[in-house]
Amino acid sequence: MSERSRLVGWDAALIAGIVMFLFLQVPGNYNLIIGLITVMILSNCVRNHITAYKLNGKIY
User: Fold this and answer.
1) Contact at 8 Å (CB) between 24 and 7?
2) How many alpha carbons fall within 13 Å on the CB side of residue 45?
3) Rounded to 10 degrees, what is the CA torsion of 10, 16, 20, 22?
4) Which of 18, 24, 25, 46 sits at 20 to 30 Å (Cα–Cα) from 53?
5) pLDDT of 17-27, one tens digit each?
6) How confident is the model at residue 27, as a pLDDT?
7) Are 20 and 34 in contact (CB under 8 A)?
8) Which H, E and C letters describe 9-42, residue by residue?
9) Distance between CA atoms of 48 and 34, rounded to whole angstroms?
């Protein structure tokens, strides 16, 4: 898998997590779990984008 497709895949997972957190009505503490996982995906996306920028000088 190329670096660009990996970045796009993580970005798609981040968008899916945000959409799930905002629009999916789940019982109990599942919203908290979805929110924490979304934050973990966000931190991974930021780290991947910074690494890609350092290597290439551009993100995409």
Assistant:
1) no
2) 16
3) 100
4) 18
5) 999 888 988 88
6) 85
7) yes
8) HHHHHHHHHHHHHHHCCCCCCHHHHHHHHHHHHH
9) 21
pLDDT in tens, 9-49: 999 999 999 998 889 888 888 888 998 999 999 999 999 88
Name the phi and psi angles at 5, rounded to 5. Answer: -70, -30
Q: Which helix (H) or strand (E) holds 55?
A: helix 30-56
Tokens of 41: 């995906």
In angstroms, the CA 6 to CA 50 distance is: 13
Model pTM? 0.81
